[in-house]
């Protein structure tokens, strides 16, 4: 794993932005795996700026988001699809039919999961899969105990995940209990994985990920098994990692 230390959140976002833009400029039809949460917001803001300054085009890009809450359509203001439209898709020139988010409101969720996997396959390999780090070590919505070979499926959210995501909802009772998540096996097939981590509140988890052997009890540790992982983390997030 390659670890890049950023001074702060802004620099982490700048470095991640450079990496995405470089891929856009060097790969003819780039495919990105995208994440939600607070961590990638700065990156998405920068991508919009670079697009507006005509430094990058997403005309030939395809994206696949990691996850979506079950029961939530793209029009629902708390859905991840809505989040992505508001924070990125509506402001760049990506084709609507190339910006994929699992459909949490699908009538047949199993079919939706199978079809999502199929679409990823048809797009070719994901060039860069962006990840954030959940407070319990989850990636996407793959909670502790998820098999490392899992595929896109309906998952149950851990209580700790629902608590930490309650900040986006009126109350904890409103946080969905299930979601569709890209599988760990699916994520691991990406050509490169870019994990962004910011803030001292992530320092213990990040140190644990870096110092542990791969274990299904701690999903992010699977990244040790991938040949091309870049972690861009800021000073706070790296504060408990020796040598940083
Ligand atoms: C959510 C998302 C993850 C995200 C994680 C961390 O649960 N499903 O994809 O990486 O939270 O979020 P944050 O970046 O807000 O810390």
Briefly, what is this?
Helix content is 30%, strand content 17%.
Layout of secondary structure:
Layout: E1 2-6, H1 9-26, E2 31-34, H2 41-52, E3 62-65, E4 67-69, H3 80-87, E5 99-100, H4 109-123, E6 128-131, E7 153-156, H5 159-165, E8 178-181, H6 184-188, E9 192-197, H7 203-211, E10 229-234
Parallel strand pairs: 1-10, 2-3, 2-6, 3-5, 6-9, 9-10
Antiparallel strand pairs: 4-8, 7-8
Helix pairs in contact: 1-2
The protein binds 2-amino-2-deoxy-6-O-phosphono-alpha-D-glucopyranose.
2-amino-2-deoxy-6-O-phosphono-alpha-D-glucopyranose binds at residues 35-39, 66-67, 132, 134, 140-141, 161, 165.
Q: What keywords describe this structure?
A:
Rossmann fold; binds 2-amino-2-deoxy-6-O-phosphono-alpha-D-glucopyranose; alpha/beta; 244 residues; 3-stranded antiparallel beta sheet; globular; single chain; 7-stranded parallel beta sheet; 7 helices
What does this structure look like?
This protein is of the alpha/beta class. It has a single domain (2-136, 153-234), classed as 3-Layer(aba) Sandwich (Rossmann fold), CATH 3.40.50.1360. It has seven helices and ten strands. The strands form two sheets. Strands 1-10-9-6-2-3-5 form a seven-stranded parallel sheet, sandwiched between helices. Helix 2 links the parallel strand 2 (31-34) and strand 3. Helix 1 (9-26) packs across helix 2. The longest helix has 18 residues, at 9-26. It starts with a strand and ends in a 10-residue tail after the last strand. The mean pLDDT is 97. Residues 35-39, 66-67, 132, 134, 140-141, 161, 165 line the site of 2-amino-2-deoxy-6-O-phosphono-alpha-D-glucopyranose.
